[in-house]
Amino acid sequence: MTATTRYSLIYGLIAGLVLIAFITVIGLLHDKVDFVATMTFGFAVMLVALSFVFVGVKRYRDIEQGGVIRFGKAFALGLAIALIAALIYVLAWEAYLAITDYRFMEDYAARSLADAREAGKSATDLAAMRAEFDKLIVQYDNPAYRMPMTFVEIAPVGLIVALVSAALLRNPRLLPAR
Fold it and tell me: Which residues contact 42 (CB under 8 A, 6 or more apart)?
């Protein structure tokens, strides 16, 4: 196993474990926490988990590359770490859905419609929302639709973190090895 593969796996798995912990917390709290706050919390946790992209690239630069790394190599390693974390995220979400009898989208639709009703939306608006949610529920029942959608939730965050990490860490004076 190459050093690059080893770093990708180690730091991708660490990031994935943080994401699994997040999904577990969301699963335990989803009835008790406002959905918007949960989404905000979710993206914050994605950033925390994907900070292991930066850590992994830095450790690779410092230990395997003598403190110097080119942008392309750093970016490729960062993407590999982010990809592993994203795949773990998708698998963990699928496990969560299976454990909860695939009720997420129905629960989300019911909560959104209740919020809209409380906000004073008209019956016409509520009916239109219900029709959209009914289509979305059918689509979300299909794993060929759901799994890529789950991947797309985290992939752009991973891409940005990999780009920023590579751009920063190509400078050997930034957090130099001791």
Answer: 22, 26
Rama region for 58: left / alpha / beta (φ>0; ψ in -120 to 50; rest): alpha
Q: Is the pLDDT reported for residue 35 higher than 60?
A: no
Nearest by Cα to 52 from 95, 21, 82: 82
CA angle 134, 138, 140 (to 5 degrees): 110
What is the distance between the alpha carbons of residues 164 and 171, in angstroms, rounded to a whole number? 12
In a domain, 116, yes or no: yes
For 133, the domain range is 103-140
The CA-atom distances, in angstroms, between 41 and each of 19, 30, 44, 46, 137 are 12, 12, 5, 9, 24
**Nearest partner of 35 among 148, 115, 93, judged by Cα:** 115
Q: And the tokens for 162?
A: 């990999």
Judge if 8 and 87 occupy the same domain: yes
pLDDT tens column, 57-92: 999 999 999 999 999 999 999 999 999 999 999 999
| C-alpha dihedral sign at 33, 34, 39, 41 | negative
User: How many domains are there within the chain?
Assistant: 2
